[in-house]
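Entry type: protein chain
Record version: 2
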Amino acid sequence: MSRRCLFTKTVCLHTPAFRFLLVDSRPRRIALTVPSGLPTPLLSTALDILFTRFQAPLVSLLSSAVMSTVAGGVRSALVIDLGWAETTVTSVYEYREVRSSRCVRGGRQLLNETHELLKATVSRMRGQDATRADGGHMLSFKECEDLSCRLAWCRSATNSSSAESRTVALPTVQEHDELEVGSDGDIREDDLVAIPLENCPFTSEVKVTFGSLADVCERTFLDLDYDPASFDDHEMPVHLLAYHHLLQLPMDVRAVCMSRIIFTGGCSNIPGLKGRIFQEVSGIYRERGWDPVRGKAVRPAKTNPPVRAPSSEAESKAANTAARTDQDGVWHDAANVEPEIDPIEEQLKRGREERGVLGTLRSIESLGPWAGASMSCQLRVPAMANVERENWQLHGASGASRPGDVDVRAQQRQSMGPGGLMRGAGGSNQANWTLGIWGYS
């Protein structure tokens, strides 16, 4: 099913649904995996299609970030979704979404940058200035998408020209050393690749270098040539978005999530992009730590702490005398007494040891949200929100109660027996039903 007909009711109802899908005539309960930030009109359209055309009696809504965490084999994670329209960073703690951040950098912007690269190359071939080239789209969307899927790649942080320009006192390196093929078969960035064009009216072939394709990827997702203060909140680079997201989390949640970073989405398949984002986040962490305060006025205070005046000998003797107490007629030195074992602290310490790796930046692999949803359905895990067909056709999206209106105690008394995923909240006997976190979109 194409990207354009995912939420188009007229297209999905006729041609693709019954031509490419094996639809059973019997009613089936459906689990729908969607992002938590999906707008309510799109969710309403999808539910209308499932209830009217597929005759589903019940639709269970599952979060894609939580399902990616399940597919990774962990309970908590930092899910970085490099999608088509935007990049979303979601922190999941114990199968619950804690915080979500997003920016407009994604596959659509990558295709626009690729089009500008090919447009400038064709303009130079015609002897025109790239800034004075003809307006509009010179190449088709299909050709730019095919080029991005086949040839887009990203350099590592050690081989990045942007990182070298920001480093002070770099050693002089000859140009041929950087462009030669290494012993491990690395590609040369000055090698030209010929790209055939079918719909361009000016030329049938264009030649670009591998290095220019890597520059397009870096400019789209990282944009290291500009100061971080020059970006708005909605256009922040991916590595800064992930770092600021971790910085705003509580300390215990951050310690767990930073050790379980999951990359998902279509753009995560670009070679070298996941490793580069992880390297940039690690570099910022080594430089700044988790201190939210930074700037020129803060550096002197950190490097030169205030000097305390030395205490006099009389004050030190008085402090030592005050530290000695009389208990049961026996003098004790309070400064050298071993602290008593706190049972609560010991339980917390054992709990931290059971949670595994903490406080270390680490990336893990995941099978994706659809694999996680499949495993959750097989294990009969209760869904976050269940919508019944009768309630939806009677009330629609406007009849969904807010999560605060649902009786939490009644939900806690529900059984985890067979069919736990497909039953529970939203039953016909219950007065309140909810769309969960999707009701706020």
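Comment: The radius of gyration is 29 Å.
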